[in-house]
Model the fold of this input.
Amino acid sequence: MLREGKLPNIARLSKDGGRATLMSSTPPLSPIAWASIITGVNPGKHGVYDFAQREQGTYDFVPNSSAKRRARAMWNILGDRGKRVCVVNVPLTYPAERVNGVMISGFPSPPNAENWTYPRSLGADLERELHDVDFRKPVALVDDGEEEGLLEELTKTTMNQVRVLKHLLAKERYDFVMTVFDGIDTASHSLWRYLDTKHPKYDPKLAEQGRRAFYRSYELADEAIGEVLGEFDVRPNVIVLSDHGNGPVYYGVCINNWLAERGYLAFKRNVRTDLKRWAFRRGFNVYNMFMLAKRLGILPSLEAAYGKSSLALRTVKRIALSFDDIDWERTKVYSFGNYGQLCVNLKGREPLGAVDAGSEYEGLIDQVRRELLELRDPERGNVIFDHVLTKKELYRGPFSDEAPDLVFLDSKMLYNAHRFFELASNSLVTPHPIYSGNHKPEGILIGWGPRFTANRGAEVASILDVAPSVLVLAGAAPPAYMDGEPLLGMLSPVIDTEDEPVPLAPELRVGERRNVRKVRESSLFTVPGAMAEADLSSNKEFPR
Done:
C-alpha cells in the first residue's frame, strides 16, 4: 500500500523519520502490550497478563481494567511535571483516571458507563456539542456477506474519533496527545481470510469485497493521521506505532482437551458430569450450541456470549461441559487465557490447589513443557507449538507470580490455543472458531519531527522503549525502574531534560542497544528487517 501511494500520510512520516520493527509482548496480546507501552515496564511490574485475571481465592476470571494496572503510565509522570495531556481511546483505560488534562476510555469500555471520561462531565459535553461521539471498537466477528457493514461501522467510528480529537485540540494546546485507531485490528481479525487463498476459511466469491474492506481500514487510519496532524500549528514530535502485527491464523487448539487426556485436568465423578462428558464427546458442546443459536437468530453474535454475565453462557454451562464440572482437588494444570496460557493448580495460591510449591511444581512444569513441544496436529502430523516458556523466563517484578505458569506459541502463529469457553469443542484442533487473522509479534514504529533523525537500517525496538522515549522528548528523565530505554538511533544527539541532559550517541543505532539484547533473549521469534523499502514521495505534507 505504501508503494502504491495509498497511505500518503504514513508514507510521509516514514520517508522523513526514523523507523524500526517494534517487538510486542509475549504473548502479543493487546492488554499486555498497551500496558507495557504506556508504563515502560514488563508485565511482572505492571501486573496485566490478559483481558481478564484470576479472582483471588476462586477459579473465576474477572475483567481487567485501568485500576488493575499497577505501574504509572507516562501521562501520569508527565502530569506530575505540569504537562497537559490528552488521552483518547487507549485500550485498558476504563474507567478513566484522573489526569492533568482529559481522558476518554478505550476498549473494552462498557456502553452507557458514566466514568468513561475524565473529567466526568466531558462525555456529556461532547455529546451536547458533537452529538454522535461513539467510537467504540466494532464487533470483530462478521458473517459472510457482512463485510460492507463492517466497513461502514469502521468508517463511522474512525471519523467520530477524528471529530472528537479535532474538537479537543481546538479547545486547548496539549503537551502530550495519545490516541489509538483500532479499526485495523478489527478488520484483520475478521477479514484476513480474504487475503490468503490457502486459508481454511477463504471464500473466492466474497474475496473481492472482503479485501476491499480490509485495505480500506488502513486507508481510514492514514486519513485519520492526516486529519489530526493537520490541527497542529507547530510541527510536533510524532510516534506512530502498533502494539503488535497482524497475519493469518488457521487453527484453534482446545488445549484443555489435551490436559484432560493426559490426566492433568480431572472431572467430577457424578452422574450429571458423566452425562455432560458423554454428550460432549458426541459434539454437544458450547461452541456448536452457540453456532446453532446464531444460525437460528436466537443469539445475535458470538461476541455477545463472551461476557461473564451473559445469559447465553450461564444457560449453556448448566447443560454443557464447562469448568463447573472440574474436580479441582484432582486437577494439576488448567488452561485459561486468550492464548491458552497454562496455570498450575498450586497449593496456597489456588483455593483447592493440588500441586506443592518447590520440586513438585518445577518437575510438573518441565514435564508439561516437554509434552507440549511434542504435541502434533492429529490430522496433519506436524508439531503444533515450538515455543514453550515459563513465567520465570518471560517476566520479572513484584507481580510476576500472578502470571500464567506456561506460555506456548507456534512461531508461524497459524495455530492459536484459545479460551473460547474453556471446553469449547470435543476436537483438539479445529478451524479457528473465532478469527481468520490474529496478532503477530512484529509491529511497526515510526518517529517523525524536530527531535527525530531519519534512519533506514534494519533496526529493532521493544514496546518497552516507547515510554522512556516519550519522557525524554518531553524533557523528563525516565525513572530507573523502567525496563525500556530511549530510542537512541532515532532521537537527535542530545535532548535536555528538566533533570539532566540525556546524551544520545548518534553512532548508536537502535539494533545495537543493550536493551535489544534483552528483547531478543526473551523474544520467541526471528525478527525480520525493517519496513519494506518503498517510494514514499508525496506532494502534500499531510494529505487529508
About this structure: The chain has two domains: 8-249+440-522, 251-434. The first helix runs from residue 8 to 16.
